[in-house]
Design a protein that fits this description.
Blueprint lengths: L1 H17 L3 E6 L5 H5 L8 E8 L1 H10 L16 E3 L3 E3 L19 E2 L12 E3 L6 E2 L12 E3 L6 E2 L12 E3 L6 E2 L21 E2 L11 E3 L6 E2 L12 E4 L5 E2 L13 E4 L11 E2 L7 E3 L8 E3 L3 H5 L2 E5 L3 H5 L8 E5 L14 E5 L5 E2 L5 E7 L4 E6 L1
Parallel strand pairs: 1-2, 2-3, 2-4, 3-6, 5-7, 6-8, 7-9, 8-10, 9-11, 12-14, 13-15, 15-17, 16-18, 17-21, 21-22
Antiparallel strand pairs: 19-20, 23-24, 23-25, 25-26
Length: about 375
């Protein structure tokens, strides 16, 4: 009987330990968040905060995520879900971080490194009042899965979410105009991204080493930087908006192995009938594979490029066929004004074949035909 009672007590204590602690608070006077939450604030797992927040309040939130002002892990804090959508960031209070340089709050900004290394966070809703998300603000917050960016945010700066390896979902407002270099670099779990309609550029390394499968470039985008979509190893479709009239060299470097379809919606002009730039170099270029500074020249063969269908405006098909670079691809007339790519479902490899249909026991160097569990057949480039 005693053993049974002991087991029940231990089980009850375990339930208490694992229980979610949910709290909502309104901070009328900036700097008072910890006092309003009480002494048990480090056990809160789900927090909704409204009102005014300064540096002192950010220190509290960081502590709740297990990080101190020196950006060191403390082993305390359990905050997993943070809703700040109704909060306002105010200048003032103490420096919330001191590593490398002192960092303080500024009106309507998610400051530099504000939530860097906040590994307990899984979901965050950022303030609707925020206009700018500064550099490295959530860098290497490795538990973060979902980010909902405020409705009035116009700019996300360099490396803001770099290295958030669990990040799966990012909701960006349609009014967002600017992304920084490396904003989502190394977010290896990021599969689906809807780029904002107001976006005009995708800068260097912005989505490098992510898991995006189907990519749509909005109609207002006129420039994609070098390596912007480098190493997207599961990329299947690319749709370029109507304003993309020039492609950047190596913008999709090492991302062509699985690509099946590229949709071009640039209508052309009398002076420039087809998309300009480095067409074949779209997937190629120099690459430092192990970080030792020594580069190798990556090249897709004509055979490999021919496996990719490029859908172009029907009235420009002959112009693309006349291009010595575009004619390396399989060119298809696209009569629709804006074709949406086919969405792929997650599937597993069930069989492999050579290009002539011979079954393979394992991956073989070169192009492999890969049969998936959903019945589709995909190409895989094995190097």
């Amino acid at each position: 009987m005693r053993k049974l009672l002991l087991f029940v007590c231990l089980a009850f204590m375990s339930l208490i330990t694992d229980a979610q602690v949910v709290k909502s608070v309104n901070v009328e006077e900036a700097g008072t968040l910890q006092a309003l939450l009480g002494n048990d604030y480090l056990n809160i797992t789900d927090l909704t905060v409204t009102g005014n927040l300064n540096g002192n309040d950010i220190i509290t939130l960081r502590a709740m995520c297990g990080v101190n002002t020196g950006e060191e892990q403390t082993g305390t804090g359990k905050l997993e879900k943070l809703d700040m959508s109704g909060a306002v960031i105010k200048a003032g209070g103490e420096n919330y971080a001191t590593k490398y340089s002192n960092k303080s709050t500024t009106d309507n900004e998610i400051g530099a490194a504000m939530f860097r290394y906040c590994n307990t966070l899984k979901e965050v809703r950022l303030p609707n009042s925020v206009v700018t998300i500064k550099n490295n603000s959530f860098e290497k917050a490795v538990g973060l899965k979902t980010v909902i960016i405020g409705a009035n945010t116009k700019e996300i700066q360099k490396a803001a979410f770099r290295g958030c390896t669990a990040l799966e979902n990012v909701d960006m407002p349609a009014t967002l105009t600017t992304l920084g270099n490396e904003t989502f670099k190394d977010c290896v779990s990021l599969t689906n991204v809807k780029l904002p309609d107001a976006l005009t550029q995708v800068p260097e390394l912005c989505f490098s080493n992510t898991n995006i499968q189907d990519l749509v470039i909005p109609d207002n985008v006129t420039y994609i930087g070098w390596y912007a979509f480098q190493d997207l190893q599961n990329l299947v479709t690319i749709t370029f908006g109507k304003s993309m009239n020039t492609l950047s060299k190596t913008s999709f470097q090492r991302s062509g192995a699985y690509v099946e379809d590229v949709y071009i919606n640039y209508p052309g002009t009398e002076d420039q009938k087809i998309i300009g730039g480095d067409y074949v170099m779209l997937f190629d270029g120099f690459y430092d594979d192990d970080g030792d500074g020594k580069t190798q020249d990556v090249r897709y063969t004509d055979e490999e490029l021919a496996q990719i269908k490029v859908h172009v405006p029907a009235n420009r098909l002959e112009d693309y066929k006349a291009s010595p670079k575009w004619n390396k691809f399989t060119l298809v007339a696209n009569t629709a004004s804006n074709v949406e790519p086919v969405k792929m479902v997650n599937a597993k490899v069930v069989a492999r074949y050579t290009l002539d249909g011979k079954a393979l026991g394992k991956a073989q160097r070169g192009l492999n035909l890969v049969k998936m569990s959903d019945g589709t057949v995909r190409k895989e480039l094995v190097r």
